[in-house]
Amino acid sequence: MSDATEANKVEKTKTETAEAVPQGTAKTTESNEAKPEGSSDKKKKKKKKRTNISKIENYFPKGIYPEGEWMDYHQDFNLDRTTDEEKRYLQRDLENQDHWNEVRKAAEIHRRVRKNVEGKIHPGMRLTEIADLIENTTRKYTDAEDLTKMEDPTSRGIGFPTGLSINEIAAHFTPNKGDKTVLRYEDVMKVDFGVQVNGNIIDSAWTVSFDPQYDNLLTAVREATNTGIKEAGIDVRLTDIGEAIQEVMESYEVEINGETYGVKPCRNLCGHNIAPWRIHGGKSVPIVKNGDITKMEEGEHFAIETFGTTGSGYVTSEGECSHYAQQDYDYELPSLPSTKKLLQTINKNFGTLPFCRRYLDRIGEDDHEIALNYLVKQGYIQDYPPLVDIPGSYTAQYEHTILLHPNKKEIVSKGDDY
């Protein structure tokens, strides 16, 4: 999920495990019964392939989840982290193993959801169908299908609303109830979704396109994100990461419908660190050189994401809002009964995790629009409208979550797909 920079604050493993059969679930095979004499093949009904998806614990009965892809720190000032003081660093990392394991659990769910979605997104689908496919699979793997029946609805589940942003819309679009938008062959769609386990959020995204003329746009952004991951590390300045990302992305051109465009970074969109139950932890990772000398620190989680565009390279807030998040909960409740009830419902089911209007519909808050708008106006809830470049432009996004361990970094959301 994207972070907007200061200039636009108002918009705010490699290791893929083999698919295991959950404990207690039998593998199903088609029987080879003999056909009755005279029977016809035409009468035989084609069996649908059964998809078994259950909570992730059934696939990992020992409770140990796969590590992501490991990468060394390449900066000179980080080299001693793998030599003289390695034992001390590793001991400190060992003390955090339970925490890392929860992050890896969320990452494994993210990979499996992606695998389930792979090949199923196609032109002609409504965005609501795609969102349901991703979110319902996430709910099954996290065992969070009905928040109203969970003792603590914020303990696991969806990390933030599924972003399905098309063409010039770079981020923060998910369909509201009744949306009839249909994905077309000529569209470029960013798919950005999150998974959380005990507030540890995995934030990872990729771009879907069907027309090969967009390939260079996607390649530029994917390689820029990979560059950001490579440059990230303990004590690295954020502006230096942005400078490296910008250099790679701007080295690409893309020809669309006979016209050539230089690929530009969306300069007021950023990656970000991730805090418990907060998708934006306070630090922004720029995708251009911006002079920010803030440094990354040991133990931090970062979402390294880049956005490339054929447009102006600057996004603004436009369109109907769908993304929201509660502000710090240290204020008096509103006096109006309807708004007080809605705020209490949001706090119980989402806490400070981002949510969307469809999620309110799902838990029975169908008539929420007036109360929600009031909460936004009064500052209890922050709205995050769609972030849009100029009409007719195309934007792409790639993103991974990384962990800064004492002696190496872990691309925890990395999979075989991207």
From TrEMBL:
Q: Which PROSITE patterns match?
A: MAP_2
Amino-acid positions noted as binding a divalent metal cation 1 in the UniProt annotation, renumbered to this chain: 192, 203, 399
Which UniProt keywords are present, listed alphabetically? Answer: Aminopeptidase, Cytoplasm, Hydrolase, Metal-binding, Protease
Domain Peptidase M24, by residue range, is 102-313
Q: Please indicate which superkingdom the organism of origin belongs to.
A: Eukaryota
List where Basic and acidic residues composition bias occurs.
Answer: 1-17, 30-41
Catalyzes what?
Answer: Release of N-terminal amino acids, preferentially methionine, from peptides and arylamides
Q: Indicate whether Acetylation appears among the record's keywords.
A: no
Q: Where in the cell is it found?
A: Cytoplasm
Q: Which GO terms describe its molecular function?
A: initiator methionyl aminopeptidase activity; metal ion binding; metalloaminopeptidase activity
Per the entry, which co-factors are needed?
Answer: Fe(2+); Mn(2+); Co(2+); Zn(2+)
Task performed by this protein: Cotranslationally removes the N-terminal methionine from nascent proteins. The N-terminal methionine is often cleaved when the second residue in the primary sequence is small and uncharged (Met-Ala-, Cys, Gly, Pro, Ser, Thr, or Val).
Query: Which PANTHER family does this UniProt record tie to the protein?
Result: METHIONINE AMINOPEPTIDASE 2
Question: Family assignment?
Answer: Belongs to the peptidase M24A family. Methionine aminopeptidase eukaryotic type 2 subfamily.
Name-wise, this protein is Methionine aminopeptidase 2
Gene source species: Maudiozyma exigua (Yeast)
